[in-house]
Amino acid sequence: MFGTLESKPLPLIAVSSTPANPEVRARVRADAENRPGVYRMWGPGDELLYVGKSVRVRSRLLSYFRAPKGEKPGELIRETAHIDWDYVPDEFGALVREMRLIQRHRPKYNVQHKRKRAYAFVKITREPAPRVVPAGRVTDDGSTYYGPFPRVGRVAHTIRDIAHVLGLRDCPGSTPVIFDDQLDIFAGRAPLERSPACLRADLGTCLAPCCGRPTSRAYDERVRHARRFLEGRGAAPLTILQEKMREAAARHDFEYAALVRDRLERLRIFQQELTAFRGRVDALTFVYRVPGHAGNDRVHLIRGGRLRDTLPHPKTRDARRRVAARIDAVFGAFEPGPGGLSPHEAAEILLVARWFRLKPDELKRTRAPEDWLAAKRPA
Ligand code: SF4
Description:
Blueprint: H1 22-31, E1 37-42, E2 48-54, H2 57-64, H3 72-79, E3 82-87, H4 91-105, H5 111-114, E4 120-124, E5 132-135, E6 144-149, H6 152-166, H7 180-185, H8 200-203, H9 216-230, H10 236-250, H11 254-283, E7 286-290, E8 298-303, E9 306-312, H12 317-332, H13 343-358, E10 366-367, H14 369-376
Antiparallel strand pairs: 1-2, 1-3, 4-5, 4-6, 7-8, 7-10, 8-9
Helix pairs in contact: 4-13, 6-11, 10-11, 12-14
Bound molecules: iron/sulfur cluster.
Residues 169-171, 175, 196-198, 200-201, 206, 208-210 line the site of iron/sulfur cluster.
């Protein structure tokens, strides 16, 4: 059955003797076939109410008409003015298509997807004194984004740790900043009089560019440490915390040492998860051949956890040449990295990862692009 992943079909429980919405039902009975596909249920004002998928579209759709009034499927079918559907030869293709439609239209009955699948990104802003802040979505604002991370609350906590350990600001972007080396240029002017705009300056958890304390070079150095940490190429926040813990223990401030130890542990776990997540996403790069309905086998090209293209499984020399050309294009193209991800793309990565996690045998149908080309590209 479809529905084991992401969007479960609305549960159909009881049987009513009077079918709801007889005109729509008549059309389904006349036209729908028992083949895999994705269906859409529309309201009278052409509002998309629900998107679903099934390996047997006709049976699935007809079952809605037997749902009792008062249950969600019953309410949905009574509200539906018309239904349309596409046949998709394979379950994986249908799953991705369904998710993309739901992400794009946010139909009101797709409660699971509407339950705000919250993914978080870490954003390093593009400003004179960049900030490290959590972000719910990627926008084209020149910032660098890292992620996606599925646990928003914890990510926000960890980002705060990174900012505080490295002394990076997390105040609003509108806070005026100035650097110590700029003060030299404007010696004697107003910036010298500035006081810190928040307590972090006095607590020593921010270098405080709001009052011109760091040089731009010193601040940039800390930003570089943050980037390297998020890219899995540096451990400066961990080193700083280890040093603080050692100093606290040396002066017998065990309470503070315990606080630092907990923060250190959180950042260590975060970095391990980051590395593991990135590795798992990179590993989702292959050519995935699946059996399709009535022999319509498909070849999915998956790179970095995202479905980039789907083609019919090639049966002729010319078709193999076409698939080889697409493989070259899809897997050979330059990828800008996490900064290029939209939230929808992030959701797709998590969906694809979940598919292979729940169906590990499906990995036996995958091949590295270069292996596919070596075996199948016509000479
Ligand atoms: S100390 Fe100044 S720069 Fe740092 S977070 Fe506070 S307001 Fe922003």
